[in-house]
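Researcher: For the record, we're logging two predictions in this thread. I'll number them. Prediction 1 follows.
Model: Prediction 1, sequence and structure:
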Amino acid sequence: MKSIFKNTIIVAALVFGAASVSNAQVKVGSNPAAIGTSSNLEVEATNGNKTIVDKATGKVTIQDGTQGAGKVLTSDANGASSWQPSIPASQDAEVMLSAKLTTTQSLPYSGGGIITKVNFDTELFDKGNNFDLTNDQLTAPTSGYYSVNVGFSRSGTASNSISAFIYVNNVESGQGNLWDGGIPASAGYTASASRMVHLNAGDVLDVRFRPNFAADGISTAFLQIAKVSN
């Protein structure tokens, strides 16, 4: 009888011990005496960052200071992980600008085409405030690739040709003429074109027009710029 009672106690102890192990919480690293009530496992660094395995769901939470909504876990060349935006930051359109000219601007001609900066007078929007209406120029906040879209409507009536250029740091950007074709003898001629340019942080961009055969003018014009990639 004593033997049976003794064996019963041993079995009960083993069962109880197994249950305790199955429900155990494990804390590794700093502050080992404290663990979240919903955690099965916590690995904590000295700065308080930690990796957690949830007791109920089994989900893993990595809190390393870079975490945030919508981010993805990526590694560097050495395999160290961190949370990064799920899409490139430039896709958040760091630069998004729309400006226009609403009053007629003359384009002088004197024995040859004179290149004149377009005097935009209205901003429809300018995310980041990177466009200066006083100097009619965009200053790139960061290096990357920028989409530039330009258009105009002429005010002159004689046959002519008007070219448009993108200037970067007061030098023609190398993109060539945005357009350059004959204009019939009538008012209201319109044209537009787009280019992709690379700008370094601090580069200054503006748009300039040149009449090729005689003085002319533009009654309206627009400029749209967006950063599309780093």
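Researcher: Logged. Prediction 2.
Model: Prediction 2, sequence and structure:
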Amino acid sequence: MPKKRIALAENQCLVREVIAAYLATQMDAEILEAASVEELNDLITSQGPVDMILLDLLLPGMMPGLEALERLVEMNKGRPVVLFASGAAPNVVIEALEKGAVGYVDKSQGARSLVNAINFILAGETYLPAFLRLTPRRKATDERGLTPKELQVLTGLTGGLMNKEIAQQLGITEVTVKMHVRAICAKLNVKNRTQAAMVASQFGYATTVESNKRPATSESVASNPAVRSGLSV
């Protein structure tokens, strides 16, 4: 089995080298290092998408507004991009999720916990520390913090639509739909699209999208292979 390729984008040279050496031995992974967004861009351009990007919040080129994050998610073909920081504010983490990150790993946690978090994310899950999962989401158009576009994607999920169908109806790419689904799962504190659709139904969300409406019943959700598997995000 080929080694996992993890890009460690960390501002501090010593921290980056120590973490890279540790992960390489503990995970039998190939660790690619970058000290800035520019270096990370060059790395992905020259070597192709990686299995995961650990992205330092203070990486040169990241701020303001995490402006580089969405571009990096697109460049990495929707593969996991994880915010990597110390004591990031909940609103910053939520913004990162909205821009396509699949989780937040705090640098203050233990080395073994870092490995566990990485493996959890590589298995297709969204990772957030427990205290953040209990933090109220910032106010948006919905009391659960869902943006208007995420609400549109969510209605597609409850209608049993696949990512390709949702993308066509909303005029966005499938990669962007996957980004929104990950953010939805994080905000609703669920593991996959199946659970998101179930929670949405319980909360009384609309069960059809505006164009090409399809009734959303428990049967339609169950019959959709992408939803039933819970693996396509």
